[in-house]
Amino acid sequence: MRNFELWHKDIVCVRSGAIVQPALVQQHQIGWLMSPNVIRLRVPEAQEGRVLPEYLLHYLCLDKSVAWMRDRAAATAAPSLRSESLGSLRIPLPDLAEQQEIVASLNGLDELDRAHLAVAASVRRTRIALAGALLGPSTEPAPDIIPRRRLEKEASL
């Protein structure tokens, strides 16, 4: 099963089904077995000083790259991307220093995006909870608040 184990910084792409952005294998996923539903991309040891897996990931996550993969997925009931098709994708490869700058910039924006999504989700959950508390049925009105029946009567006018 060693041939199917994922290594740190492998890139996995969906082979069949909904073609979505690829993902980078993280430290905690080392040794996981890959599904037959994915294609694993790994920078060969001989090329490690020439290309960054993170650079490849960012390129493959571009809308145009994902669209390219979708276009090449076989037109069947469930789209299927062949590794031969993926191997024909032309990826511009700047020098390693430029790749590192690109990766650092895009990783920073990805972190900011995740932080904003977390804040937005928290605000949404808070709004739902507050709306339920403010607008939901009350069991007993507080003495200094207008009775609910009076509010209902005034609202129907």
UniProtKB/TrEMBL annotation:
Looking up Pfam families in the UniProt record yields: Methylase_S (PF01420)
Q: Biological process (GO) annotations?
A: DNA restriction-modification system
Q: Does the keyword Nuclease apply?
A: yes
Xref: InterPro entries: Restrct_endonuc_typeI_TRD (IPR000055), Restrct_endonuc_typeI_TRD_sf (IPR044946), Type-I_RE_S_subunit (IPR051212)
The molecular function terms in GO held by this entry are: DNA binding; endonuclease activity
Q: Would I find Hydrolase among this entry's keywords?
A: yes
Domain (Type I restriction modification DNA specificity) spans 49-111
User: PANTHER family from the xrefs?
Assistant: TYPE I RESTRICTION ENZYME ECOKI SPECIFICITY SUBUNIT, TYPE-1 RESTRICTION ENZYME ECOKI SPECIFICITY PROTEIN
Q: Which family does it belong to?
A: Belongs to the type-I restriction system S methylase family.
Q: How does it assemble?
A: The methyltransferase is composed of M and S polypeptides.
- Name of the featured protein: Restriction endonuclease subunit S
Q: What is the organism field in this record?
A: Streptomyces griseicoloratus
List the taxonomic lineage: Bacteria, Bacillati, Actinomycetota, Actinomycetes, Kitasatosporales
